[in-house]
Structures are given as structure tokens and as C-alpha cells.
Amino acid sequence: MLKVENLTKEFTMHIRGGVKIPSFRNISFQVQSGTMLAITGPSGIGKSSLLKCIYRTYLPTEGNIIYQTKEGEEVNLAQASDREMIQLRKSEIGYVSQFFHVLPRISAKEILMEPLLAKGVEEAEAKEQAEYLLNYVGLGKTLWEMYPSTFSGGEKQRLNIIHAIITKPRFLLLDEPTASLDKGYKGKVMELINQLKAEGTGMVGVFHDKDAIEVLSDVQFDLIAGDYVR
């Protein structure tokens, strides 16, 4: 589903006279459907930046990111237009960030229903799916109509994850999805991720949590070595 070829990212600090800050260099890997590739390495090595290049929050400095769409078309995400990327994000590619930012005064249930309604799901069905997932990850009825700005860090992260997976994207990027979760809720979230993977979703995840790597990943890629972990 995804082929990354000789990808490099460096940042230009214009306020410091154009100083170049390297992130990662000449990274290549592939991701198959129904599998999770875990990106490993110490903090600050560029793992999150790599995910943002794939999602096109960042533009890579060099290299290609070849994504195969559900129609079988190959799209180079490193060169795709903003319009193409917006459409792919709506229809195929999901992203779980470390930090969940939402519009104020929108309830948790409405946040989950919105992407389903945008895809043409009937309101009653969207409501049912949203309530099921909220309940599954321990966000009970008292929170459904609340604003996520009032949630704890763990509650926000659980909402973040189910928001990304509720439309069952073909491809999913996950940045430390279990970092702020306790053991019980972490298990629930990992069950949902593995279920989605079993249905064919390809995934790239960034983890420090060794338990999550063991449970979720099929392949590991060491960003320092620039190669797969054998």
C-alpha cells in the first residue's frame, strides 16, 4: 500500500539565518495491507516528523512516498497537490496525533458522528456507531454531550483514536496512540487497532511502549539504522 523511497527531511530555521536542522535521511521501507510497521528509535530522532511527511503536514526535503489508492492508482504523496491530499485524508488515510485539537463547543459524540455523516452515513447509524465506540473505550454517557476540552489527557486520547478509526480508513498513521492510557484502556484501544488491521488497513505507528510494539506490530523499522529490525 505504501512505498517510501530515499526520504529525507531537514528543517530550515529562517529566524536563525537559514540554519539547516536535519531530521532523518535516505529512509526507505514498504507497508503491506493488513500490517503494522512500527517506527522505533529514541526521542528526537524524527519519528513523528516521518509520519507528518507521509500525512503531508510536512513537505519532505527529498524522496518519494508512493501510496496505492483503493482504485489501484499510485500517488506520490511527496508531490501530490493540497487538493489531492485533502481528498485522500477524507476518504482513505487516517491519523492519530499525540495531541487532539478540536473545535470548541462541539460534543464528543458530535465529533465522532461528523466524519460518518460526511461520508453519507444515515444520522441514526452514525449516532449508534459513535455511542458504541465511546462506550467501548470507557467514555460513558455522562461524557457524550460534553466538550473534549474538559476531558483528562487519557480521555482525550481515547476520543482521538476512535475518531481516527470510526470511518475505517484504508491506511492509518499512529503517533504514540497508547502513551497516555492506563493498562485497561490500552488493551481496549489495541483490540480496536488489531481489529481494523485484520480488516485490511495498512498502518505505520510510532511507539515507545514495548508492549504495544509486541501486540500491534508485524514489522519494525529502526530510524537510526535506517533499516528493518530483524
Please specify the SSE layout and strand pairing:
Blueprint: E1 2-13, E2 19-31, E3 36-40, H1 47-55, E4 62-68, E5 74-76, H2 82-91, E6 93-96, H3 108-118, H4 123-136, H5 141-144, H6 153-165, E7 171-175, H7 183-198, E8 202-206, H8 210-216, E9 219-222, E10 227-228
Parallel strand pairs: 3-8, 3-9, 6-7, 7-8
Antiparallel strand pairs: 1-2, 1-4, 4-5, 9-10
Helix pairs in contact: 3-4, 6-7
Structure description:
With 230 residues, this protein is of the alpha/beta class. It has one domain: 3-Layer(aba) Sandwich (Rossmann fold), CATH 3.40.50.300. Helix content is 37%, strand content 26%. It contains 8 helices and 10 strands. It has helices spanning 47-55, 82-91, 108-118, 123-136, 141-144, 153-165, 183-198, 210-216, and strands spanning 2-13, 19-31, 36-40, 62-68, 74-76, 93-96, 171-175, 202-206, 219-222, 227-228. It has a 6-stranded mixed beta sheet, sandwiched between helices. A 4-stranded antiparallel beta sheet has the order 2-1-4-5, with helices on one face. It is globular and about 50 Å long.
